Amino acid sequence: MILEELGCRTTCVRSAEEALSAFKDGKFDIVVTDYRMPGMDGQELIQSLRGIDPELPIILLSGFADAMGLTERSTGASVVIMKSANEVSHLVRAVNRFSGVSRPRRKPAGSVPGKSVRSVSSSS
């Protein structure tokens, strides 16, 4: 909801597998994912997405970032954000930073210009 209030078009899915499927079918400028999800975890999703688009900005959210030592380097994410009271401000700052980046992207027929953010969240 926060990202939509910023003017982002968001697509929410319930699993990493759904995220990969949707990503292959559409254009997304930024991916926001949780670490803990059913099936494939966020790090595995990031590796799969990097195979499709190595330059894609990916934001990884986790309540376990510190405890598990999750960093940009260890996960492949562009940014790792610890779930906390400051999570929203960190997320907004990261999305704003990446939405200003101009880079060539694949565009399916009928795509509409503007920010698109993929949010992957666990159903648990």
Write up what this structure looks like:
The protein is of the alpha/beta class and 124 residues long. The chain has one domain (13-100, 115-119): Rossmann fold, CATH 3.40.50.2300. 37% of the residues lie in helices and 19% in strands. It is built from six helices and five strands. It has helices spanning 2-5, 16-25, 42-52, 65-68, 72-75, 87-99; strands at 9-13, 30-34, 58-62, 79-82, 116-120. It has a five-stranded parallel beta sheet with strand order 1-5-2-3-4, with helices on both faces. α2 runs parallel beside α3. The chain is globular, with a radius of gyration of 14 Å. Mean pLDDT is 82; it is low at 102-113.
Structural descriptors:
124 residues; alpha/beta; Rossmann fold; five-stranded parallel beta sheet; 6 helices; 5 strands; globular
Structure summary:
The chain has 124 residues and is of the alpha/beta class. The protein has six helices and five strands; from the N terminus they run αβαβαβααβαβ.
